[in-house]
Specification:
The protein is α/β, with parallel strands linked by helices. It is about 35% helix and about 20% strand. It is built from eight helices and ten strands. α5 links the parallel β6 and β7.
Length: about 270
Amino acid sequence: MSRITLIFYFIALFLISGCSPEDNPVPGEKGKIIVLMYHRVVQGNAANLYERSIEDLEADLKYLKTNNIKVLSFNDLESISMAGEMPDGNSAIITFDDGDHSWYTLVRPLLMQYNMKATFFLWTYMMGHDSFLNWDEVDDMSRYTLDGGEQPFTFGSHTFSHQYLYSNKDEFATSADYNAFLDYELGKSKEIIEKHSPGPITILSLPYGDGAGDSEIIAAARRNGYKFIRTSIWAAIDNSDFDLFVIPSLPMLDSTEPELIGHYLGI
């Protein structure tokens, strides 16, 4: 083999090795984000529409793991919105409404077992009453820290007294009265929760899903320091141009099959 031929051979070999798939990976396929909404979790069979058995909740978590659905936080959602690009693969955010004591006794250990994060929305007037959490349990959950320093259990507001925020509007004589009502429901709840959970409370869940997208409710949320509103609109987030104050969700009811998660994600 001539000297010139050898030179061309090594140049070709260098170019081929420099363009391997490992050096130029194919970008991952962009996915969707589903926000899951739970309420009370029970041992055994659920007694009403909004309860879910601990066995079904575990089946949901297994479904997320098996299908490589990454569990995000609302802060992750804000980063996605700011970046203007959906993440690779499908994702989910796990949320719970109201404040049932089962979150501490059943949900917390299961989430710890599966190493998953979640956001819990509190109906603050009811805390410590009936079957609701007490504030010591909220404090304990909120301060639980993973090895890397992340606190996976975050809290948000489900308002102070869990009233219809939009449908009650006609009960107020003036716009000023109505906005004072909104400020109390959103502001008082936030103030109370922040005494028992580290960091600012920035996420609001609308009671009964009432008032999703309403401009006055969104304005009240903004002036009271919220950055997100999770609604009860049944949908997944399928592009980065979404509204952080109109976040859709999928209610996980007593008869909901885990595969419904995949249906909304297009799996």
